[in-house]
Specification:
By secondary structure, this protein is mostly helical. 64% of the residues lie in helices and 2% in strands. Strands 1-2 form a two-stranded antiparallel sheet. The longest helix has 28 residues. It starts with 6 loop residues before the first helix and ends in a 16-residue tail after the last helix. The structure holds ligand NDX. Ligand NDX binds next to helix 1, helix 2, helix 4, helix 5 and helix 6.
Length: 250
């Protein structure tokens, strides 16, 4: 373990992600935005997604920029760069394309601090604690993890695109998603993101990444369950063969 790595914040941050994931499942309530938005003070979806996801991009991007050029190309900087890539898309592309409904201001604050904390945790661990052998890029954990990360990101972006095409600009209506992995599951975009963060945890072989994958599985898995239940309730002709999150299984 490098000399300037403090174990305690890494363990505390990872434990917090596990606790939040468990809390999400224990409460098992629909997350109060999108289909389940309560009557609350809201901000437009574009502004909300930009503001709440920004820390997950800005924190690792600044930490990477402060690293000596000699460090660029090391597994830690490449892995942190992948994290930045995901959140660059979520912050500057997804948020400006979304046709979602307004987002509760209270949730934006908790999301902002969630993304700030997760950005700090993943960045701190990779830059100040992680150690990788010289042959890490040829290790099966890195190559399989990178493949899953990119596969999951592709599924996630494609599925979110399908959802966006269900509405004309300004519409706030729900229709049955068709095509892509929505042929098999109601939470295709969530399945993509879960695969992505499982791949990231494999490629970085780190506790913080593993616990973020666990949190995403809990939060998005439950959200897929609520979406599937919503669709079955609202659409009589919802495809009966379609599963919630895992094709042909669940
Ligand atoms: N944001 C991650 N909990 C969350 C914000 C809320 O990125 O304190 C987790 C994220 C945060 C949450 C975040 C963490 C936990 C928090 C919570 C707030 C409170 C909570 C902090 C940070 C908390 C405790 C106390 C336990 C700690 O109108 P609309 O918006 O529904 O329209 C939707 C549209 N759409 C349709 N349109 C037409 N017809 C249909 N049938 C449609 N179905 C959907 O598509 C949207 O515009 C769009 C996508 O909607 P949806 O519901 O499918 O996805 P959504 O949940 O909005 O996520 C969007 C993307 C998606 O790719 C997903 O994978 C990713 O963001 N995401 C989302 C949530 C968390 C996350 C990733 C992650 O954990 N990795």
């Amino acid at each position: 373990m490098p000399v300037h790595c403090q174990q305690s914040p890494v363990l505390a941050g990872s434990a917090a992600l596990v606790a939040m994931g468990a809390l999400v499942l224990y409460w098992a309530k629909p997350s109060g935005y999108g289909k389940y938005v309560p009557a609350a003070v809201c901000l437009s979806a574009r502004a909300a997604w930009f503001l709440q996801e920004l820390p997950s991009f800005a924190v690792p991007a600044v930490i990477l920029a402060l690293q000596p050029r000699t460090l660029f190309g090391s597994p830690a900087t490449v892995l942190l760069g992948l994290f930045c890539l995901h959140y660059f898309h979520r912050t500057f592309v997804y948020s400006f394309l979304t046709r979602g409904r307004s987002f509760p201001v209270a949730l934006i604050f908790s999301s902002f601090f969630f993304c700030l904390g997760n950005g700090l945790l993943q960045s701190y661990y990779l830059i100040y604690c992680a150690e990788y052998p010289a042959e890490w890029y040829t290790d099966i954990r890195f190559s399989l993890g990178l493949f899953l990360f990119l596969l999951g990101m592709g599924i996630n972006i494609h599925s979110d695109y399908i959802l966006r095409q269900l509405r004309k600009p300004g519409e706030i209506i729900y229709r049955i998603p068709q095509g892509g992995l929505f042929t098999y599951v109601s939470g295709a975009n969530f399945l993509g993101e879960i695969i992505e963060w499982i791949g990231y945890a494999l490629a970085s072989w780190s506790l913080p990444a593993l616990t973020f994958a666990f949190f995403s599985l809990c939060f998005l898995g439950l959200r897929a369950f609520h979406h599937h239940r919503f669709y079955l309730k609202v659409f009589e002709d919802y495809p009966k063969s379609r599963k919630t999150l895992i094709p042909f299984i669940f």
